[in-house]
């Protein structure tokens, strides 16, 4: 059973997760480069923060999870956990970046809620000045919450009789072994702040956004006849803006829904892992690995969502990878993500909202 589990871990973490990390590195870097070419708006800032957090998560997972399994199974490199236990403090970036990513998705959901359900206050709540403040608050709270993890382990010198020399070894501290720390922090608080609360917020926001979109669609259908009769440039521009607004909302809602799907199994695992004991080969053992695998999938799949669901992103990405700036010069004043706050002047001089994606 142990050999089967070792092979399972090598396939999942050594092979699959390594491939996911490589794909995620490329995808998130390309996303950041594509976003950097566009004008700054709140939704774009949130997507940049999400891509950066996912990039840090994948890097940490590759070094502290995938690389050890590759080294142990192939004997081509040294397991960093055995040769350099201080990798433990690099591993701390995994829970920090994971929690940051899930709360950045919550901010994206809140941004879309305001854009769809409360558009009149969008320009005051979500501005280029306030959005970095929201992001900074999330980062400060996440890092502060994970500070106790630094004191859970310590690195000590241990004398090895076989080699007649000392070596470094990781060991739990008295604080890390405290039952109250395990129950209150690692079970209750981690479950609530990392999983239950953000997922509940995402589900509620998504439901409100979908309801708001359906209401908007019915309103647009009722006004479509009048708009078709008008046939003015301003009416056409308003229709274009409405379609673009729906497109960006669709893309960001897909990002939120995928996050819910990929993060929810981890919630189920956390409830089970502390309610019963399990070992290699048990169902909970595989649930543990699969749920963590889905978290890594979530960190690299957003790039695919942008490519599939956003024509504007594909256009900018194509110009980026082909080093073609001519396409950018002739492209109209629009961006991958816009919150509908920029006015364009039409040929007849009237002002219309542009919400291009």
TrEMBL record:
Residues 221-240 are annotated as: Disordered. The chain crosses the membrane at residues 12-36, 43-63, 89-110, 131-151, 188-213, 248-272. One of its GO terms (molecular function) is G protein-coupled receptor activity. SUPFAM superfamilies: Family A G protein-coupled receptor-like. Residues 27-306 form the G-protein coupled receptors family 1 profile domain. The keyword Transmembrane applies. Keywords: G-protein coupled receptor, Membrane, Receptor, Transducer, Transmembrane, Transmembrane helix. GO terms for cellular component: membrane. It holds the Pfam family 7tm_1. It is found in: Membrane. Belongs to the G-protein coupled receptor 1 family. This is G-protein coupled receptors family 1 profile domain-containing protein. It comes from Paralvinella palmiformis.
């Amino acid at each position: 059973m142990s050999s089967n589990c070792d092979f399972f871990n090598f396939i999942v973490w050594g092979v699959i997760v390594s491939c996911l990390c490589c794909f995620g590195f490329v995808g998130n870097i390309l996303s950041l480069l594509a976003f950097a070419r566009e004008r700054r708006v709140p939704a774009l800032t949130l997507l940049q923060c999400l891509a950066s957090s996912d990039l840090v998560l994948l890097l940490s997972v590759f070094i502290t999870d995938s690389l050890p399994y590759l080294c142990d199974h192939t004997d081509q490199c040294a397991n960093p956990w055995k040769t350099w236990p201080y990798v433990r403090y690099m591993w701390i970036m995994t829970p920090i970046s994971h929690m940051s990513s899930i709360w950045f998705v919550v901010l994206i959901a809140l941004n879309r809620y305001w854009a769809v359900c409360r558009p009149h206050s969008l320009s005051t709540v979500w501005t280029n000045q306030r959005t970095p403040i929201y992001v900074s608050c999330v980062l400060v709270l996440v890092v502060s919450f994970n500070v106790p993890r630094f004191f859970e382990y310590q690195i000590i010198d241990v004398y090895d009789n076989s080699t007649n020399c000392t070596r470094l070894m990781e060991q739990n501290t008295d604080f890390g072994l405290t039952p109250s720390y395990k129950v209150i922090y690692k079970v209750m608080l981690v479950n609530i702040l990392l999983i239950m609360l953000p997922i509940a917020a995402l589900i509620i926001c998504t439901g409100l956004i979908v309801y708001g979109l359906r209401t908007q669609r019915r309103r647009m259908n009722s006004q479509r006849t009048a708009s078709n009769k008008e046939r003015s440039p301003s009416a056409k521009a308003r229709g274009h803006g409405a379609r673009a607004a729906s497109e960006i909302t669709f893309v960001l809602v897909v990002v939120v829904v995928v996050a819910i799907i990929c993060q929810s199994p981890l919630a189920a695992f956390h409830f089970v892992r502390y309610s019963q004991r399990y070992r290699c080969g048990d169902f909970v053992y595989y649930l543990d690995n699969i749920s963590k695998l889905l978290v890594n999938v979530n960190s690299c799949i957003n790039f695919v969502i942008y490519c599939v669901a956003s024509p504007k992103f594909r256009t900018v990405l194509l110009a980026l990878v082909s080093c073609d700036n001519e396409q950018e010069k002739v492209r109209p004043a629009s961006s991958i993500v816009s919150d509908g706050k920029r006015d364009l002047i039409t040929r007849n001089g009237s002002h219309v909202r542009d919400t291009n994606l």
